[in-house]
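Whiteboard transcription, Tuesday session. T.W. wrote the structure tokens on the left side:
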């Protein structure tokens, strides 16, 4: 990907564009991702009914996608189109910093949605009591800080001591002089979020299955008691509401009269996101994990596929949000009808 197709004239490298499938796909992904994430951010900003605690995680992921798209994707298109780097050292510094920061933020923002669902299912009472917009914002900000702390050390070290020559290697971070750091980043910030998302689905499935068994047992007990339970209800006996284990209902903790309760559909969203990231992330995780064991690994076609799929995830996320949330689809229709 970084082989330079260039001619040398007056001691300067002149790069010539080559419209191969990779830069074309990245350009299309840039356009669709910019449109999709930007449109949903505009919808969330203009529809106050969508401002719920769980939707904070959705907006956080949209912001991370959008930042990655506008700061990294144009340079991805440029470097793959020209097969080299002719924008100078300072622009390269910006590109590497953006690429190595925003992508892990995206990975871990997906992970935050999974962790939120585990919390909602495993401890629904504390989730309803503690989880708020302020809590969600704090957790999302913590993700950005967490990624910055882990990534900044290696990026700074690379800039000061290990930067590869631009004219021969292009603009890229060399992980080999910082092998331990690179492996930790790959495992903790890239692979682990995908594992958490899969584990979250298993936890949710088991919790809901256990909840269904409890409900069936309670219904059997009530049925066996017959009219006694009905008599107790009619006589004003104490009734304790049974909290739902799913954590999807009543995402907003403040209920207002004459206003329908919104469902977050967080579990459905997690299922859709897990399916999409399994397709888009797995080839990248396999390829670059394999690279640490075989540094001579060079499969250009497979490498190009991993790059396209990782970029494509930024386009898929807004689609998954729209499929999961009826309220978001309604807001989109209202936005377009208003503009027309």
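and on the right, the sequence the group agreed on:
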């Amino acid at each position: 990907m970084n082989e330079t197709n260039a001619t040398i004239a007056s001691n300067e490298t002149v790069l010539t564009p080559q419209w191969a499938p990779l830069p074309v796909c990245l350009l299309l992904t840039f356009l669709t991702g910019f449109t999709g994430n930007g449109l949903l951010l505009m919808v969330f900003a203009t529809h106050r009914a969508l401002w719920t605690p769980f939707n904070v995680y959705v907006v956080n992921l949209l912001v991370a996608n959008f930042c990655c798209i506008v700061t990294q994707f144009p340079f991805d298109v440029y470097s793959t189109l020209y097969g080299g780097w002719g924008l100078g050292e300072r622009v390269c510094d910006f590109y590497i910093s953006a690429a190595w920061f925003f992508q892990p933020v995206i990975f871990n923002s997906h992970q935050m949605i999974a962790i939120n669902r585990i919390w909602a299912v495993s401890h629904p009472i504390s989730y309803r009591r503690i989880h708020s917009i302020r809590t969600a914002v704090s957790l999302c900000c913590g993700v950005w800080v967490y990624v910055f702390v882990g990534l900044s050390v290696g990026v700074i070290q690379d800039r000061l001591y290990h930067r590869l020559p631009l004219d021969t290697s292009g603009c890229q971070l060399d992980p080999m002089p910082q092998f331990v750091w690179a492996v930790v980043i790959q495992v903790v910030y890239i692979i682990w979020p995908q594992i958490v998302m899969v584990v979250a689905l298993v936890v949710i499935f088991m919790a809901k299955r256990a909840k269904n068994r409890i409900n069936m047992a309670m219904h059997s007990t009530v049925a066996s008691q017959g009219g006694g339970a009905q008599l107790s209800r009619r006589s004003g006996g104490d009734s304790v509401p049974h909290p739902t284990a799913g954590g999807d209902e009543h995402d907003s903790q403040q209920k207002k009269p004459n206003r329908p309760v919104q469902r977050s559909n967080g579990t459905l969203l997690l299922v859709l996101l897990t399916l999409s990231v399994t397709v888009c992330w797995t080839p990248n995780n396999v390829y670059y994990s394999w690279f640490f064991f075989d540094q001579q690994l060079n499969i250009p076609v497979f490498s190009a596929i991993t790059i396209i799929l990782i970029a494509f995830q930024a386009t898929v996320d807004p689609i998954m949000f729209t499929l999961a949330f009826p309220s978001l689809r309604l807001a989109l229709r209202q936005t377009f009808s208003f503009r027309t």
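Someone added at the bottom: The longest strand covers residues 6-9.
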